[in-house]
C-alpha cells in the first residue's frame, strides 16, 4: 500500500483509522497527520483516546474539544497540523445549544437524565465522534481530517452508533413517553391520567418515580431535536461513504486483532465504504534471519553441555612451557649461598645487599605467580559467563524467530482470505512514541522508509 500518494491527493479529505483496541490507532493517526502536514496539507487530527498520548507526543499540555495548533511542524506550502480530543459531553451540549432555544436548552442541560445520558450512555461516545467529524467537515477549515476511532470493545461500534441511537430514539419506550406531550391539552392530561397511570406506576416502582419524571421531562424537551439527530447521523454516514474518505484498518500481527480486522474489512465492503488498506503494526524482525530457531536452540544446548570449547592456546601458550622455563623460586635460591649454622659474622655478600636483592626478586616472582593464578581463574569464570550469555542470546533469538514465524503465518491467513486488501507493515520500535521525532519515524515506516519531500 502506498500511503504518500493518498496523503498528497487533495481529493482525500477524511482518513479514518479503525481497528481493535490497543493496536496503535492513535499513534498511526498522529503519524499520518504529522506526515501530511509536513507535505503541505492543512490537517486536523481528531482522537478519542483517553490515555492522552497524542497530546504528549505532539508537545501539547492538554487537548480538548477545540482544535489546537501543533508547533514544530516542518511543513511546506502552508502545511499545518491541529489536534483535538473529543469531549463527549461537551459535544452533546453544543448540539443542544445549537438546535434549541435558550430556555429549552437550559432545561435539557440541567436535566439529570440528560446528564447521565451525555456522560456515559452506551454508544454515545461513538455517536459524538460522528457528530464532531461532521462539524469539522462542515467548517471546511482543514483540507484533511484524520480520525482516531474510539477504543471500543468492538471496532464496529463506530459505524453502528448512529443506527443504535436512531433505534433508541424510535423505540417504543421513547414513543410511549412522548405520547402525552404529543396529544396535548385536556385530552392529553386525560390520556396521561388514565392511559398511563398503570404504566407509570409500574415503572415508578422499578426505576423510581423521580427518575421516570426526569426521563419524561428530557423526552419532552428533546422532542424537536430527535429528527435532527437522525438527519445528521445519516449525513455523516453518507460522508463516510463518499469518494473523499479513506478507511485504514489498523491491526497487529496477532490472531485476534487480524480476525477483527478481517471482520471490519468485510463490513466496510458490505456498507460500500472506501477501504485504502491494512496497516500491520508492530511487526517484529531480526538482523540474523538466516539463523533458524532450530539451529539456535541446538547451539545453545551444545554450549550448555560443554561440547563447544575454545581449542586455541590462549594466554597459557604465550607464556611458554613450565618444563623449560626456570621457576622464580629457583632464581632466588641460586642467588643466595648457604650460611653455616650458628654463624653470626658481620654481613657478607651472602647476607648483604645482594642477598636482600635476591629475596626481593623471589617475593616479586611469587606475587606474579599468585597474580597469574588469579587471572587464570578469572578467565575461566569469564569463559563460563560468555558461554552462558551466548546460550541465552541464542535462545532469545530462537524465540524471536518463533514469533516471526507465527506473525507471518497469521498474516498469510489474512491475505489468503482477503487478497484484494493492500497491506503496509510497520516495524516495531524499541520504545514508546512520545514526541514528534517518534511520530516522524512511524510515518517513515508507514510509507516504506521514505522521508518526506522538502
Molecular structure report:
It is a single chain. With 454 residues, the protein is α/β, with parallel strands linked by helices. The chain has helices at 3-8, 25-37, 53-57, 88-99, 102-109, 112-120, 124-139, 157-169, 172-183, 185-195, 197-207, 209-241, 255-270, 293-304, 314-319, 328-334, 353-417, 436-446; strands at residues 14-18, 42-47, 68-69, 80-85, 144-148, 245-251, 275-283, 423-427. An 8-stranded mixed sheet has the order 3-4-2-5-1-6-7-8, sandwiched between helices.
In total, how many beta strands?
A: 8
| Cross-sheet strand order for the largest sheet | 3-4-2-5-1-6-7-8
Please trace the helix and strand order, writing H or E for each element. HEHEHEEHHHHEHHHHHEHEHHHHEH
Ends apart, CA distance between termini: 22 Å
Which descriptor suits the 3D outline? elongated
Q: Strand pairing plus helix content: what structural class?
A: alpha/beta
Q: Describe the sheet with the most strands.
A: 8 strands, mixed
Low-confidence stretches: 183-207, 309-351, 450-454
Strand content: 5-15%
Amino acid at each position: 500500500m502506498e500511503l504518500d500518494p493518498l496523503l498528497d491527493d487533495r481529493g482525500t479529505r477524511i482518513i479514518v483509522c479503525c481497528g481493535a483496541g490497543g493496536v496503535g490507532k492513535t499513534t498511526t493517526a498522529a503519524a499520518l497527520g504529522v506526515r501530511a502536514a509536513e507535505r503541505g496539507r492543512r490537517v486536523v487530527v481528531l482522537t478519542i483516546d483517553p490515555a492522552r498520548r497524542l497530546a504528549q507526543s505532539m508537545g501539547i499540555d492538554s487537548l480538548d474539544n477545540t482544535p489546537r495548533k501543533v508547533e514544530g511542524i516542518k511543513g511546506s506550502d502552508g502545511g499545518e497540523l491541529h489536534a483535538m480530543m473529543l469531549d463527549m459531553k461537551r459535544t452533546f451540549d453544543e448540539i443542544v445549544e445549537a438546535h434549541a432555544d435558550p430556555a429549552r436548552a437550559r432545561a435539557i442541560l440541567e436535566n439529570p437524565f440528560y446528564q447521565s445520558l451525555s456522560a456515559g450512555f452506551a454508544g454515545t461516545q461513538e455517536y459524538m465522534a460522528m457528530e464532531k467529524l461532521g462539524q469539522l467537515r462542515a467548517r471546511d477549515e482543514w483540507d484533511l481530517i484524520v480520525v482516531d476511532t474510539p477504543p471500543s470493545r468492538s471496532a464496529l461500534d463506530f459505524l453502528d452508533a448512529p443506527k443504535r441511537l436512531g433505534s433508541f430514539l424510535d423505540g417504543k419506550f421513547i414513543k410511549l413517553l412522548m405520547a402525552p406531550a404529543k396529544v396535548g391539552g385536556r385530552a392529553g392530561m386525560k390520556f396521561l391520567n388514565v392511559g398511563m397511570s398503570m404504566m407509570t406506576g409500574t415503572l415508578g416502582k422499578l426505576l423510581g418515580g423521580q427518575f421516570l419524571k426526569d426521563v419524561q421531562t428530557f423526552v419532552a424537551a428533546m422532542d424537536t431535536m430527535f429528527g435532527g439527530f437522525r438527519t445528521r447521523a445519516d449525513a455523516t454516514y453518507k460522508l463516510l461513504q463518499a469518494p473523499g474518505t479513506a478507511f485504514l484498518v489498523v491491526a497487529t500481527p496477532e490472531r485476534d486483532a487480524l480476525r477483527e480486522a478481517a471482520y471490519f474489512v468485510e463490513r466496510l465492503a458490505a456498507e460500500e465504504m472506501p477501504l485504502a488498506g491494512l496497516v500491520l503494526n508492530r511487526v517484529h524482525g531480526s538482523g540474523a534471519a538466516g539463523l533458524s530457531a532450530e539451529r539456535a536452540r541446538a547451539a545453545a544446548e551444545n554450549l550448555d553441555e560443554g561440547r563447544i570449547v575454545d581449542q586455541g592456546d590462549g594466554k597459557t601458550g604465550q607464556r611458554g612451557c613450565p618444563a623449560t622455563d626456570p621457576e622464580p623460586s629457583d632464581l632466588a635460591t641460586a642467588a643466595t649461598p648457604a650460611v653455616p649454622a650458628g654463624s653470626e659474622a658481620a654481613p657478607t655478600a651472602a647476607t648483604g645487599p645482594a642477598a636482600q636483592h635476591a629475596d626481593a626478586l623471589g617475593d616479586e616472582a611469587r606475587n606474579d605467580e599468585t597474580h597469574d593464578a588469579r587471572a587464570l581463574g578469572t578467565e575461566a569464570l569469564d569463559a563460563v559467563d560468555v558461554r552462558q550469555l551466548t546460550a541465552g542470546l541464542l535462545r532469545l533469538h530462537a524465540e524471536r524467530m518463533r514469533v516471526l514465524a507465527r506473525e507471518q503465518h497469521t498474516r498469510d491467513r489474512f491475505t489468503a482470505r482477503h487478497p484484494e486488501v493492500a497491506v503496509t507493515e510497520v516495524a516495531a520500535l524499541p520504545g514508546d512514541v512520545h514526541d514528534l521525532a517518534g511520530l516522524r519515524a512511524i510515518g517513515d515506516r508507514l510509507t516504506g522508509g521514505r522521508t518526506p519531500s522538502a
